[in-house]
Automatic annotation (TrEMBL), chains A, B:
It comes from Humidesulfovibrio mexicanus. It comes from the Bacteria. This is Lrp/AsnC family transcriptional regulator, leucine-responsive regulatory protein. The lineage of its organism: Bacteria, Pseudomonadati, Thermodesulfobacteriota, Desulfovibrionia, Desulfovibrionales. SUPFAM superfamilies: Dimeric alpha+beta barrel, Winged helix' DNA-binding domain. The keyword Calcium does not apply. Residues 157-169 have a biased composition (Basic and acidic residues). Residues 147-169 are annotated as: Disordered. GO terms for molecular function: sequence-specific DNA binding.
DNA sequence: GTTGAAAATCGCCGTTA
DNA sequence: TAACGGCGATTTTCAAC
């Protein structure tokens, strides 16, 4: 369903999201139109969900990163509270976890004061029992890049520690 | 240093990373060449770190997401262990935290067996004292998109829960 | 920042294996 | 079904203003 060439295309795009079709075509040794069609298919199937610019958070006013564990009272299988948490601006990620804490959130805030406001918003959501927050001092690596090269030997080597050596926050 | 127009450009790109220069130019009401120059400047200054395709992990063989806390023995201010942890394939994020746990890692693995291997690699790094892992059952939201609209009123409205309604893992 | 023009790319479609 | 090739529309990119 998803062959080696697709893997190479995905591998390129997860690291260099704006690589032109023409360049990808050259990399995989196919006609640009063929690559275009593969990309479309991958997007249509949902394998490619979209493309994001990677910004340096502090440069756009978000100096604080934190992870918050939220314990919630809700029926098994329901994720309504998780959805409500996800809607709070500054919440980048919402994971429903296996532990006793129901949710693990990744949050970005402008400063500690802003973080406090966000935590208050969490508390105001019905069903949220309590929260526990860990503030990040420094982010050493932050990427989406999966080690696709490991399995299919796509020809591209594993990238190490490369991407995003972030500055202090 | 970074004006409202830059913010609009960044806001567009963090959600639609492959938006063409021409489209961005139309959105901000400027000539394409001007937008191109702004983007180049933003990349050169490091505000834009790069572009990533957002892939659905399970479609490329990574069905498991986990967060691992690592306690490490190392001198204050040193992040050598963090760098070693970052080099382990499957480690997407490495955060140095303020808590008693030294590092918080975001990890993606193919399956539980693979996760075990990764945790063993952590344990093999000198200075790593112990690890504690929380497995993610479902990811409700996973994005990089910062609520830039909040501060400067760039004209683009806040995006809610939109991006990435992910399937179970 | 804008304009304008050349080079490259995009993206559709008919053809082919 | 998937890839190729061709071609017009669009975009990228650079120079001059």
């Amino acid at each position: 369903m998803i062959d080696k060439i697709d893997m190479t295309i995905l591998s390129i795009l997860q690291d260099q999201g704006r690589t032109s079709n023409a360049d990808i075509a050259r990399a995989v040794g196919m006609a640009p139109s063929a690559v275009l069609e593969r990309m479309r298919k991958l997007e249509r199937k949902g394998v490619i969900r979209g493309f994001e610019a990677v910004l340096r958070p502090k440069d756009v006013g978000f100096a604080l990163t934190a992870f918050t564990f939220v314990r919630a009272d809700e029926g098994v299988g329901s994720t309504d509270i998780g959805k409500a948490l996800s809607r709070v601006p500054g919440v980048l990620e919402t994971h429903y976890t296996a532990g006793q804490d129901s949710y693990l959130l990744k949050v970005r805030a402008r400063d500690t004061e802003h973080l406090q406001l966000i935590l208050q918003e969490f508390g105001a959501i019905p069903g949220v029992r309590d929260t526990r927050t860990t503030v990040v001092l420094t982010t050493l690596k932050e990427s989406r890049s999966l080690p696709l090269a490991d399995d299919a030997a796509t020809g591209r080597q594993e990238q190490r520690g490369t991407t995003k050596e972030q500055s202090k926050e």
